[in-house]
Each structure stands twice: as structure tokens, then as C-alpha cells.
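[Discussion] Sanity-checking designs against the backbone

I'm trying to build intuition for which residues belong where. Below is a C-alpha cell string of 251 positions. I'd appreciate it if someone posts a full sequence so I can compare it with mine line by line.
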């Protein structure tokens, strides 16, 4: 009886050791706004897309597990700055203003701000938004670069009004329902929204070209360095290009 107990105890200890070993990998929390296809969107109960895949590859290289939190775009920077999340990947554009609150990793992709209109819209190029006497209602996602640019270029210039939505989907729905004249949003989500909503198109001319990067808290320079080192390796071995090519076909 004693022997059986001893064996059972040894077994239990061994199993605990195994479990501890399997769990010893630390988990990093990435925050995003999963309303931004193909960079991040919800499929079933999963957040999938370019950013989750790059994040998973970077975390694997750094030796961490990855957990993804889906939240409003507007709360991402403050959340990572306060340490609530370890990093943000959200098709997020590098801007000097954001750099005052967080650090950006090296860039992993290029973004373009585009304009979505109805197929029969009188807006035929980006310049129409800035024409003398223009008076358009422009939809954007709150706190995105689309919001920042149009607030200055259109609203403050007296060329129309800006309506701010919590995510891209709601902005596009307002356009579909005729409540606004156009949506300024990143080009890849713009294409995805147009494909999913008949009667819309993306203007050929682009509003701005930008760099996407991950955001990390200013005091977490250790993670920033590790992240950039892993990213550099994944760029060099073609992993990043392959992930992007999986979601975005070259034109
Ligand atoms: N690239 C834009 C920005 O950083 C939009 C990102 C997003 O909506 N997820 O503001």
C-alpha cells in the first residue's frame, strides 16, 4: 500500500513538473481592433488576419505564447501605454503624435489612406474633397489617421464635416445608408468593404501613404528590442512577405 502511494506520489509530482514545464512560456497580450480586414477580423470566435499571424510568428521567435484582445481602436494606445497590453498591432500608422505616448517597432507593412464612395458619387478623385466650395460629410474611424487628416484638411478648412465611427464597419454602413458622402480609411480594408457591399467603389487616387508598426509601452524597451530582432529575422527569411501575400494579392 505504501509503495503504491509512493508511486502515485512520484507520478503526481512528475505530472506537475511536466505541466509546469508546458506552462512556463510567458504569454504576451496583443490588443487590436478586429474590424480591419485583412489585417484583423473575426472568423468564428477567432481574431485572424495579417497582424495576428505576424504577431504569432514574432512571439514564437521570442519564445512567448500569444493572446489577442479585441477592443476599440481609440483605446489601444492608452491601453498599451499603461501596461494593460504588451503590444498593439492594428494596422497602426506610425505618427509623431503617437510616438510621444508609445514606442513603435520597426515597420512591417505600408498602408495607404483611400476614399470609399458610392458608385454614382460626384466625388471622383481625392482632390474633389479639397475643391473650393466643397461641402462633404466624411466618415472616418475615431482616432485613426483618416480622422486626423480629414479633421485638418476638411473640417477645419471649412470644406465639410467629419463623422467619427468606432470602427470601419459602422462608417461603411453609414455610407451604404446614404448618411455620409464618403469614408476615408486604409486601402486594404476599403477594398474588403467594397467587395462585401455592392454599389461602393474605392477612388483610384490615394489620400496618403503610411507605415504600419507595432506599438509598445515606452518603458518596455526590452520587449521593443526583442520584437525588432525577431521581426528582422522574419523579414529576412521571407516569412513576413509570405504572410502579407497570403491575404493581399499583388496588383
Ligand atoms: N492606419 C490607421 C491608423 O493607424 C487605421 C488603423 C485602424 O483603423 N486599425 O490610424
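Best answer:
Here's mine. Compare freely.
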Amino acid at each position: 500500500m505504501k509503495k503504491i502511494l509512493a508511486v502515485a506520489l512520484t507520478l503526481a509530482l512528475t505530472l506537475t513538473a511536466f505541466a509546469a514545464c508546458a506552462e512556463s512560456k510567458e504569454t504576451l497580450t496583443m490588443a487590436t481592433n478586429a474590424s480591419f480586414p485583412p489585417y484583423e477580423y473575426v472568423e468564428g470566435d477567432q481574431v485572424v488576419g495579417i497582424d495576428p499571424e505576424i504577431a504569432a510568428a514574432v512571439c514564437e521567435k521570442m519564445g512567448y505564447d500569444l493572446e489577442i484582445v479585441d477592443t476599440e481602436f481609440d483605446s489601444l494606445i492608452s491601453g498599451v501605454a499603461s501596461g494593460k497590453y504588451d503590444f498593439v498591432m492594428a494596422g497602426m500608422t506610425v505618427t509623431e503624435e503617437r510616438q510621444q505616448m508609445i514606442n513603435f517597432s520597426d515597420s512591417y507593412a505600408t498602408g495607404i489612406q483611400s476614399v470609399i464612395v458610392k458608385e454614382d458619387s460626384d466625388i471622383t478623385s481625392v482632390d474633389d474633397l479639397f475643391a473650393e466650395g466643397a461641402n462633404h460629410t466624411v466618415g472616418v474611424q475615431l482616432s485613426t489617421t483618416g480622422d486626423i487628416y480629414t479633421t485638418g484638411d476638411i473640417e477645419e478648412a471649412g470644406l465639410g464635416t467629419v463623422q467619427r465611427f468606432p470602427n470601419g464597419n459602422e462608417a461603411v454602413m453609414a455610407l451604404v445608408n446614404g448618411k455620409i458622402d464618403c469614408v476615408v480609411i486604409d486601402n486594404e480594408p476599403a477594398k474588403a468593404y467594397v467587395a462585401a457591399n455592392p454599389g461602393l467603389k474605392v477612388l483610384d487616387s490615394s489620400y496618403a501613404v503610411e507605415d504600419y508598426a507595432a506599438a509598445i509601452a515606452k518603458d518596455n524597451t526590452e520587449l521593443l528590442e526583442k520584437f525588432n530582432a525577431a521581426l528582422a529575422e522574419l523579414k529576412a527569411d521571407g516569412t513576413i512577405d509570405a504572410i502579407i501575400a497570403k491575404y493581399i494579392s499583388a496588383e
